[in-house]
Amino acid sequence: MGDSSDEEYLHTEWVPYSERKEWADVTPLPQDDGPNPVVSIAYRPKFREVFDYMRAIIAKGEKSQRALELTTEALRLNPANYTVWQYRRDILRELKADLQDELDYLEEVIGQNAKNYQVWHHRRVIVEMMNCPKWELELTQNALDNDGNAKNYHAWQHRQWAIRTFNLYDDELDFVDRLICEDPRNNSAWNQRFFVVKHLGFTPEVIKRELAYAMNRIRVIKNNESPWNYLVGVLRQTESGQLNSHPEVVEFSKGLYNAGNRSPYLLAFLIDLYQEQALQQNDNESAEKVYAMCNDMASKHDVIRRKYWQYVATHLKSQLSKSSNPKQQQQ
Question: Keywords assigned by UniProt (predicted)?
Answer without folding.
Answer: Magnesium, Prenyltransferase, Repeat, Transferase
